[in-house]
Amino acid sequence: MRKMDLNNIRVATSETARDINRRVVLNLIRTHQPISRADLARCSGLQRSTVSAITEQLIEERWVREGAIGHLPRGRKPTFLHLNTDRAAVIGINLRPGRTDLALADLSGRFLAQQSISTGEHPKVFINELINHLRTLIKANPQIDYEGIGISVPGRVDPKTQRLIFAPNLNWGEVDLKTPLERATGLTVEMENAATACALTELWFGQQAEGARNFATVTVSEGIGVGMIVNGERVYGNSGLAGEFGHISIQDAGPQCRCGNLGCWEVFASNNAAIDHYMQVSVNGRSGKASTRGQIAAPSFEDLLRLVEQGNLKALETVERMARYLGQGLAMVIMSIAPDIILLVGEVTTAWSHIEPIMWQEINKRCRIPLKTKIVSSDHTTQPRLRGAVALILQKHFGLP
Amino acid sequence: MRKMDLNNIRVATSETARDINRRVVLNLIRTHQPISRADLARCSGLQRSTVSAITEQLIEERWVREGAIGHLPRGRKPTFLHLNTDRAAVIGINLRPGRTDLALADLSGRFLAQQSISTGEHPKVFINELINHLRTLIKANPQIDYEGIGISVPGRVDPKTQRLIFAPNLNWGEVDLKTPLERATGLTVEMENAATACALTELWFGQQAEGARNFATVTVSEGIGVGMIVNGERVYGNSGLAGEFGHISIQDAGPQCRCGNLGCWEVFASNNAAIDHYMQVSVNGRSGKASTRGQIAAPSFEDLLRLVEQGNLKALETVERMARYLGQGLAMVIMSIAPDIILLVGEVTTAWSHIEPIMWQEINKRCRIPLKTKIVSSDHTTQPRLRGAVALILQKHFGLP
DNA sequence: TAGATTTTGTTCGACTCTCGAACTATATTC
DNA sequence: GAATATAGTTCGAGAGTCGAACAAAATCTA
After folding, report:
1. What is the DSSP track for A205-220?
2. pLDDT for residue B272 is more than 70
3. Which residue from A235, A268, B117, B197 lies 20 to 30 Å from A153 (Cα-Cα)?
4. Are strands A89-95 and A146-153 parallel, antiparallel or unpaired?
5. Residue A363: what pLDDT?
6. Contact yes or no for A248 and B332 at CB 8 A
7. Which CATH class is domain B209-377?
8. Separation between the CA of A78 and the C1’ of D13 (whole angstroms)
9. Which chain A residues are Cβ-neighbours of B338 within 8 angstroms?
10. Which residues have a Cβ under 8 Å from the Cβ of A302 and sit 6 or more positions away?
11. Closest to B373 (Cα-Cα) out of B342, B343, B332
């Protein structure tokens, strides 16, 4: 039960019932395909005649197509319906420091084409470069009906102005990506923070949070980001800044964070934090003294994980420390919104067997309330950020308005 | 844009449009009364003929009544419409340790009658006593059409089982209040955590969070509770446990909390924490040693606030310490869900002039992101918990399904 | 003072949509 | 070949909104 938004009233017309039921049917086809009209009627509760009318319309508009004929122990054989994935396509962009991924995806979220370009230092130059790539991509597939462009960004997006704000990793300042891209391509552009994009991926394509309507995604990379879904809907917060758990102090006298605050969670539990800590302990171990750092090259986080697999004790100690701090921060996430599921995204999940027990030990110590939050690790090779960018556009057709 | 809940499909029938538009009109009358049919058509966007049909129905069902005739510079005079507050009434209950308040409220949330009984030690005995009071109340006003009973409780309510769980202040264990009360009165019973009930009060009757759809209410009393509204809707979380910011550790080596964890926020910022600290500093000051506590009687929190007004330096220091810790915890609330407004509820708000500047100093130190959360103090004499209990029932008629 | 103008509120026919019964189509079983 | 079962279509009844036309009631203007 939600309060009506009286500043944005949407009254129902005679077409509203069709709009709602059409979305019901389209969603059922999406999730249950292949499915017959009779089954659609059974699991939606609509009359068979109504389902026929709606599917006729959906087939005419090419969202749905008829497929194989099924067979039953007796009676007339049903005609199966499928989502017509060729109906339209969406462009997804995963913008991050260093590299930016572009993909073309069909209605089911499957990638049809993919490329990767380097992310420029200066936003204006990069936007022009991005526009050129988009134009080439669109021209290469002129027969496709493009539904829009979704972008996941390493920062927050103000829901009012749709500008990129608070993206310290990019160091771009406040940038308007939407307007130039829309003007150049003629397509609608939607942007969302990467962690929230991962949450959308789970909401729309997810296996692990199947049917969950309250969950959080925690991305662990250079920093830590949290995206939240509450009541089946994204949590934006003021200026789009909800989910900045990464910048909550967990130690008042801790090291300074790039945000200006002291002892933020991500100063202890991010990939960068782990690399810093590893450098500190390994240099200390070698020379017996502190402050000899910088003489050996810092490993990448992937290097660190490889060292753990090779049995390096200092690397292992570093990852275990990271697991403890991850647990401490996840305890905050759990206590605040009590999600059914937390999905952990990042390279760190490849060391899950080392992480999980220590992380849970820390969480159980801190969460003394009788709730049952599951924590699952996501396979980062499935590109959840990029798929979330696609979901950003697809939800317009499958979501409730 | 939210995802459809495929486990709980609600298709649209031919009456759905009327149901939606009826709620639109009813809400507009509630918030804009007195208002004419023509104005309703203008601000809803519906046709005048449709508004007439809907209002006719609402008048017939006694939700709305015609009132005075307005006057305009020219043209036919409009007939004003009002909410018919006598149409129905709601019983609100504020259950808390020690005392429980009962109230009868009309459709606008105004109290018609009120009483207070002592909260029993044993749930079963108390429930029977409560039933007797409810029966007497209902019999005393037999002409009223009762819509239901809303209860705000000092704990959390599992949205699935509707049982009271995690209420350490009551020490009742897991109790089913709903079933016996529904059986005894024949009315539907809804329960909600007190902090969330306060948030509902603000959502439906609020002046300060006017039109806000994302905010949090923080109740400071024996402990600290947080209730959240996101996208105009309550946040439940798993087992109804969302909002337990009060039990997030802010100091790993802090004193033990009654929840079992160490250094929880409420161990530092609650009324009880302030009383404990005052006792410690005033006894130390007197004897020069610690651990002489218990020899003088502990003041109530209201006593402490009076001492501040009287210029007692140790009481002032105690309240300022409380303000610092409140700021620290509010910073967590801000960073996590980025609310537009935080509403602070509790006796502590009577010392707002001492609290506010110190609290903000702490928040500004910790929140280095460009958001604009307002923090306002609520007048606890308006009984937000009790009015939230009423809102719990009223939202069924005014909210969106 | 009569007609023009303006605004409120109602009436009515056209259109959209769902429901549900009846009907057609197609399969298996006895 | 008749009975039975299931899928999908057709069609009329009922509920709703829209929008134009109309009725009602007030002020303005000549």
Report:
1. H-STTTT-SSEEEEEE
2. yes
3. A268
4. parallel
5. 97
6. yes
7. alpha beta
8. 29
9. 236-244
10. A347
11. B342
The arithmetic mean of pLDDT across residues A290-305, rounded, is: 73
For the cut 50, the answer to whether the pLDDT of residue A290 exceeds it is: no
The Cβ of residue A392 has, within 10 Å, a number of other Cβ atoms equal to 27
Q: pLDDT digit string (tens) for B203-251? A: 999 888 888 999 999 999 999 999 999 999 999 999 999 999 999 999 9
- Asked if pLDDT for residue A251 goes beyond 60, the answer is yes
What pLDDT is recorded for position A297? 79
Candidates 3.30.420.40, 1.10.472.80, 3.40.1190.10, 3.90.1150.10; CATH matching B89-204+384-398: 3.30.420.40
CA distance A326 to B378: 36
- Say whether the CB atom of A68 is under 7 angstroms from strand D: no
Average pLDDT over residues B261-290: 83
Nearest Cα to A325, choosing from A272, A261, A399?
Answer: A272
Model confidence at A357: pLDDT above 90: yes
> In CATH terms, is domain A16-83 a member of 1.10.10.10?
yes
Contact flag B370-A232 (C-beta cutoff 8 Å): no
Given the DSSP bridges, would you call strands B341-345 and B111-118 parallel, antiparallel or unpaired? unpaired
CATH 1.10.10.10 in chain A, residue ranges: 16-83
Supply B325's token pair: 């810790």
Residues 37-56 of B with CB under 7 A from strand D: 45-50, 53-54
Q: Which nucleotides of C are covered by protein (CB under 7 A)?
A: 5-13, 15-22, 25-29
For an interface test with A, give the residue of B19, B215, B337, B394 to mutate (most A CBs within 10 A): B337
**What end-to-end distance do the CA atoms of chain B give, in Å?**
15
Report the candidate in A385, A387, A15, A38 with the shortest Cα–Cα distance to residue A225: A385
Which residues, 6 or more positions from B289, have their beta carbon under 8 angstroms from its beta carbon? none
How far is the alpha carbon of B372 from chain A, nearest alpha carbon, in Å?
7
| Residue of B214, B336, B361, B374 to mutate for A, most A C-beta atoms under 10 A | B336
Q: What is the pLDDT of residues B102-161, one digit of tens each?
A: 999 999 999 999 999 999 889 999 999 999 999 999 999 899 999 999 999 999 999 999
Q: Which two tokens stand for residue A225?
A: 């980001």
Residue ranges of chain A that CATH labels 3.30.420.40: 89-204+384-398, 209-377
Q: Tokens 């009287």 — which residue?
A: B310
Measured CA to C1', the nucleotide nearest A50 is: C18
pLDDT in tens, A11-28: 999 999 999 999 999 999
Within the 89-118 window of chain B, which residues sit less than 8 Å (CB to CB) from chain A?
Answer: none
